[in-house]
Amino acid sequence: MRHKNEEIFRVIREFINSYYMENGHGPSTRDIEAGTGIQRITVQRYLQAMKENGEIEYGERRGTRNAFSKTIGESVLAPCYGTIKCGAPNDPFVDITETVRLPRSWVGEGEFFILEADGDSMKNIGIEPGDLVVIRRQESAEKGDVIVALDGNETTLKRFFPEKDRIVLKPENEAYEDIVIPGERMADFRIQGVAVKIIKGVK
Fold first, then answer.
1. 37, 68, 115, 197: least CB-packed within 10 angstroms?
2. 105 is catalytic
3. pTM for this prediction
């Protein structure tokens, strides 16, 4: 029975977090019932327990419209810049298509933007076409980080491996070859950010 209770807590908690990310506010008990299939009376009982544990704020009289998970806490707005190639590089992104609210607990500190994956060169780490990749905006990276790389006038998403006299951008798909930036072109190379989160696309 304990494991069943923990599973119900997990399902409700994950639904609240996802709903908050998509809508900018917490779900009602009706929303949670519809989204999880858990009966409303059970949802109310678990929400009350979560409130008593200090995990959520729960306005019962208002139909839990103000319910939200404190694990979300502060949020951050991240602009979406359209697609980025996960195969051959493409033209740099320029237009903001929309803005998404993300839980700060998901991404940590910093400034963020989102790109939609286009291509399958990073599929071995779970990045597939249509997925949203959350990027922390920064100009440096550690060896092995997944970065948004600007090489001249083209961008791509790859693993970063700096070497003494060149930079190697490695795909996560055996069907693709490494992209090598030789020393004479390194002046035109820029890191625009590091991937911190993948939001799976709807199949």
1. 37
2. no
3. 0.63
